[in-house]
Specification:
Layout: H1 2-33, H2 37-54, E1 57-59, E2 68-70, H3 71-82, H4 88-94, E3 96-100, H5 106-114, E4 122-126, H6 135-144, H7 147-171, H8 178-188, H9 190-193, H10 200-215, H11 221-235, H12 243-255, H13 263-293, H14 297-308, E5 312-313, E6 316-317, H15 320-332, H16 335-352, H17 360-369, H18 371-378, H19 380-385, H20 387-390, H21 394-408
Antiparallel strand pairs: 1-2, 3-4, 5-6
Helix pairs in contact: 1-4, 1-6, 1-13, 2-3, 2-5, 2-6, 3-5, 3-6, 4-13, 7-10, 8-16, 8-21, 10-11, 10-12, 11-13, 12-17, 12-21, 15-18, 16-21, 17-21
Length: 418
């Protein structure tokens, strides 16, 4: 009976928090849409021409998925940021942008608007099924800085965050795990993320979540992971969302590896709360957006969920395992990565094989490592079509598996997990 009361109380708390997050999120977007778009367009125009020179999917290292810039989606995000909505409320709900009929990509539509091309042949395209919460950051940012400034600022902040994580790992006695953490970063390729709008959100949410895990001792992990799910839903454009659960969860496991109690249960509980935050926040967008705009955003959202989780691609059927194989090929089948990972595995084996023992923490890490496979199979259509967006989910697998030898060689210390 007491457990049922706890579940009911937790459910009411989570529901109240979701309602509050949805309302606050919408209000923040409305405030962002009240900012003057003239200065935003002017600042975006300074540096945006590089998108035209590079093209929609610029790849600065041929055949490497890790080096593809998603300029097409970045152009959509920039077009949304500068769109001169007549109503702040409707603009925040529908998130419109201009599309020129005679332009082959959004990159050229963006430049056409910046060059003040005739608007008689333009279509206003609404994009209401996502929160687009990144606009609460981009709009104020581009009131002060231009697009070139953004790239430098983004790189500097990302470098600072990565350095912070590394310093905290050393302070918390987790320096042996750096050899597992760095290959994940190599696979993610910060050089690409540092100049991208599209790839930034999940990096920031996952790394800030990891910093919180490393800094704080708490019994309410579920609250943190619920918040990470909410933030991911609000800021991300469906790129590699599960890293915002997987990476902080790995840090939670390795931080308490010697004395971690019921790690599988902990993964499940935190995973459920992350999913409630992620899906619940998304659902609140559809409800709020439908209420404000009187458009059936809920129907549009479910239609797209059905499409993105299907096995139909360009009129043909693929297999869900085929999607996983495609993502494996996109991420790992390069000699540079094969040699790097092989070298790290050999090093970890030599260092740890004599003391290695299977324990609850290593089993938990192995369980977490399969999360990207499950995600790719579930979102087969989306994953197959967009490997450049989703492959970074493999970072969970790389970090978790390379952490197994180190964790298995650690000795249990006195005391219990807090």
């Amino acid at each position: 009976m007491e457990r049922i009361q706890i579940i009911i109380k937790r459910t009411l708390i989570l529901f109240s928090m979701l309602v509050a997050c949805g309302v606050i999120g919408q209000l923040l977007l409305i405030m962002a849409y009240c900012l003057p778009t003239e200065v935003i367009a002017l600042n975006i125009g300074r540096g945006a021409e590089s998108l035209v020179h590079q093209g929609a999917e610029y790849n600065y290292a041929e055949d490497y998925t890790e080096s593809i810039l998603d300029n097409e989606t970045d152009a959509i995000m920039l077009s949304e940021a500068l769109f001169p909505s007549e109503s702040c409320v409707e603009g925040a709900a529908l998130v419109p942008h201009y599309v020129y009929a005679d332009k082959e990509s959004q990159v050229f539509s963006l430049m056409a608007f910046l060059n003040h091309d005739d608007l008689s042949d333009v279509t206003i395209l609404n994009y209401p099924r996502y929160w687009h919460g990144y606009l609460t950051i981009l709009k104020p940012l581009f009131c002060m800085f231009d697009y070139s400034d953004f790239k430098i600022i983004n790189q500097a902040i990302q470098l600072t965050i990565i350095s912070t994580v590394l310093v905290l790992m050393m302070k918390k006695g987790l320096e042996k795990y750096i050899v597992a953490f760095l290959p994940m970063l190599v696979i993610w390729n910060p050089a690409t993320m540092g100049v991208s709008l599209q790839y930034a959100a999940c990096f920031y949410v996952s790394m800030i979540g990891s910093i919180i895990v490393l800094c704080r001792e708490t019994k309410k992990d579920w609250l943190l992971f619920f918040g990470l799910g909410v933030a991911t839903s609000y800021l991300d454009f469906l790129t590699y969302p599960i890293v915002t659960f997987g990476i902080p969860m790995i840090f939670l496991i390795i931080k308490k590896a010697e004395n971690l109690e019921k790690p599988i249960e902990r993964i499940l509980v935190n995973g459920v709360h992350w999913a409630i935050g992620y899906v619940g926040m998304w659902a609140s967008k559809w409800i709020i957006g439908t209420t404000i705009s009187h458009e059936n955003i809920i129907s549009d959202a479910f239609s797209n969920i059905e499409s993105r989780t299907s096995i139909a691609v360009d009129g043909e059927n693929i297999t869900r395992i085929g999607a996983v194989i495609r993502l494996t090929d996109a991420a790992f089948f390069k000699w540079t990565y094969v040699l790097m990972l092989l070298g790290v595995v050999v090093y970890l084996f030599i260092k740890n094989y004599k003391k290695f023992k299977l324990n609850p923490a290593t089993i938990a890490l192995l369980a977490i490592s399969i999360m990207p496979i499950v995600w790719f199979m579930f979102t087969a259509n989306h994953s197959y079509i967009h490997p450049r967006l989703v492959y970074r989910n493999w970072g969970i697998t790389v970090f978790a598996l390379l952490s197994v030898p180190v964790t298995g060689a650690r000795e249990k210390v006195q005391g219990k997990d807090e």
